[in-house]
Amino acid sequence: MLNLDCIDAISFSKGCYTGQEVIARAHYRGRVKRRMQRFETGSSQPLTPGEVGQFEDARAFRVVDCVVRADGWREFLGVAPLPGAAHEAEDARTGGAAHALAARALPLPYELPE
Fold this sequence. Notes:
The chain has one helix and five strands; from the N terminus they run H-E-E-E-E-E. Helix content is about 10%, strand content about 25%. The chain is mainly β. The longest helix is centred in the N-terminal third of the chain and has 10 residues, at about 20-30. It has one helix spanning about 20-30; strands at about 35-40, 50-55, 60-70, 75-80, 105.
């Protein structure tokens, strides 16, 4: 989910690493349902690492890191299902968010697999 495979930080074809069996199984079976993505929001809602929430399109997300830019907008990394991907209903993980966060996806410096 943290895109280590996208930046060649791990190899599925050589070597050993912690959690190799679980990661390889998810990779080869196509079960990675979420990816780390970059977003921006004009919301004044504080976003702290580990916090969970929900976007307006009902996708749940978990904050990895967040910064407040000089213009007051927040830019954050979050783990969430890719747009348009089928995603299961998020229940207690979002904590029953009172309101959905309006956010726009920003590009990453690398491509995500489809």
